[in-house]
Fold this sequence. Notes:
alpha/beta, D-Maltodextrin-Binding Protein, domain 2, disordered N terminus
Amino acid sequence: MKTRLLILIALASVIFVSSFAGAQEKRDVTLSLWTHDGLYVEFFTNRQEEFAAMHPDINFTFDFQIIPDLPTVVLANLAAGEPIGDMIGIEQGWFPRFMQDDIIHDTMVDLTPLIGDKYDMVTEGRHTPFSSKGKVFGVDSSISAFVYFYQPAVFDLLGETVPTTWDEALATGAKMFADYGVNMFLIPNSGDHMMSYFNQRGAHIFDVNGNFVLGEEENYQRALEVLNLFREGIDNGTFKTFAGGDFWGASPITDFREGTGAGSIMPDWYGDYVLKLQAEDMAGDWRIAQMPSWDDGAGGPTATWGGTGFGAWAGSENAELATEFILNGYYTIENQLKRFEEIGYFPTMPAAFDDPRVAELSDPYFGGQKIGAVFRDISPDVPIWYQSVFRPAYQDKSAADMPLFYDGTLSAEEFLDGIIEYVEEEIEFSQ
Length: 431
């Protein structure tokens, strides 16, 4: 009996020591994230507990920061051999800066093999803004799809219906402005905004390899059609343009309130982060509809503008965990739905739109409309467009000349030809 008791005591001691040793072996890991937007900090902070539960052998410390002028800071640190965040949020407009001299290939994790067979779960048009040479370096945060944000009361008062094609839009818009002084669409004079309409029509500025192809016949003609549409729409009052940052200020909201502006074609985030913030008093006055399509059926039912892709720094000692954290946050349907619920960014996975949390959501700001159903119908058809190291040249020239096109100083052909000449000169100069 005494011997048996001693054996039990010895076994208990071994178990205790082993458990203590196991607890002592739990390693410490700090995962850092850099972003320009506090909403991403909020979302990823909410993923910390579930991720830690997936790794019971690790004691995590999470260091998530908002970094002003993030691309400049990141690129400067990389050039100086200094560390950056384990996870980096790159806004799509910054991505070409990281393509310079293959920086993105040399410093960030290629996510393509890690995404694997889940690649097709995300609509293709949200992979390409963060891809280079066939490799994906960032996972996008929102579908950023265009819809028409409009006030039904304005259309009802004028006895008009929301147009479904661009020909209808021009005809109805001309009548609304001539008879009542109402502009159907308020728009910024932005080159990137215009690029979105090129994309809807199927006009590519760059190809999959980053080559400048706007001057190719098909792309040129489709872009010309878009510009001619805008020329006619501006001249007949269908469109009203706003210079520079004015579009994001009080002027459009004043037009909306006074009923002289019926609405605006903008991405999903415009509702939560512009209208609801600046026109809170107009709750219930708004609805959304698909943007007009081209009458000949070419192109698609939507366009895109914006997006932030999260990637992992290859130089981090915790690059594998950082990559896993990003993919866990963005590559499961459940977390895509949580992102929508928590920070209002619509899923990039079309399958997620079938969930009642999106498809059946009634938004009081939009009069109880189930707005998720509108985005569900267009989510598989988000246009594909490609990045290039020469996109900044396009952006610079289009930004400089867009006001001149809008005020009639430049014709559509002069606007396009000027961009093509400028970008081709930049390409030649770089060689």
